[in-house]
Structure formats: structure tokens, C-alpha cells
Amino acid sequence: MKIVQISISILIATLLLFNISCETPSHENPQSKTTFKNALTYNIRFGSEHYVPSDDPGGIQGFYAINIETRDIYYSDRIGQYSYDNKILNIPEGTYEFGAFEGYFEGASSEIIALRQDLIGNDGFVQVDLRFWSE
Questions:
Q1: DSSP code of 127?
Q2: Is CATH 3.30.310 the classification given to domain 31-134?
Q3: What is the C-alpha R_g of the chain?
Q4: By CB neighbour count within 10 A (0-12 exposed, 13-18 middle, 19+ buried), where does 79 fall?
Q5: 132 or 39, which is more confident
Q6: Of all helices (H) and strands (E), which one includes residue 2?
């Protein structure tokens, strides 16, 4: 009887440890203020809300966010042959360098911004305005 009790105790302990070690954050909710293990995340928009990406191979080739502390890099999604979305979703809180990948005829400055809740607009996005140039 004592062996059965010990075996059941070991089985329960193993299941509890396995369950704790297998917890992974959920990436299902693209809305701002989503929590991953109690961490705030942000949705970023570069340029205007009405940004129209160019499908010109000489244009901006996407946007990035580099976490200054962890060096994690986040990218905008490709939405055409040469065009990229102006949004990056679900970036964890922190201080980031935001920028754009230059094309042959277009480029942009980079900005360093510490993400804070008061930067979130009514639409759920943090607006990042870069200085764009084109030839």
C-alpha cells in the first residue's frame, strides 16, 4: 500500500513539473495590452494611419524594431512583391530602436523610443514617426 502511495505522489509531482515547464505564452490576441506572463505588449504603426505601401523595389523595404536591452528584433510583414506593412504587432515592453530598411530611392531615419502605456492611441497603436526621404 505504501509503494502505491509513493508511486502516486511521484506521478503527481511529475505531472505538476511537466505542466509548469510546458507553459507557453499565447500569441492569439493581436490587440494592444495583451499579456504574456504579465508582460505588456504593444502594437506599432510607422507613418500615418493611411499609409499606402509602395510596391516599388526602390522603396522602403520594411520596418524593424530592435530591443535595446535584449537585442531582439521584430519586423513588419511583407504584403506584396516589394511592399511591406507599416505595422508590427505584439512587441513586448522595453526601449527600442525603430527604423526602416532603405530601398534604392527611399529611406528613413531611426528613432529610439521607450514604450509606455500613455503612448498608445485610441486605436490601440503606438505611432512611430520616422523622417522619410526619397530621390
A1: E
A2: no
A3: 21
A4: middle
A5: 132
A6: helix 2-21
What residues does 91 pair with on adjacent strands? Answer: 42
What is the spatial distance between Cα 123 and Cα 84, in angstroms, rounded to a whole number? Answer: 20
Q: What's 104's DSSP letter?
A: S
Please say whether the beta carbons of 31 and 40 come within 8 A.
Answer: no
Instruction: Please say whether the dihedral angle defined by the alpha carbons of residues 48, 52, 55 and 59, taken in this order, is positive or negative.
Output: negative
CA 5 to CA 11: how far, in whole Å?
10
Grid cell in block for residue 67: 530591443
Show the beta-strand stretches assigned E in the chain.
Answer: 35-36, 39-46, 63-67, 73-75, 87-92, 95-100, 106-108, 111-114, 125-128, 132-134
| pLDDT tens digits for range 17-38 | 444 444 433 333 344 444 344 4
Cα three-residue angle 106-49-89, rounded to 5 degrees: 85
Q: What is the pTM of this model?
A: 0.66
64-80 residue pLDDT tens = 999 999 999 999 998 88
Per the structure block, which three cell numbers stand in for 120?
A: 498608445
Could you tell me if 84 and 74 are in contact, meaning their C-beta atoms sit under 8 angstroms apart? no
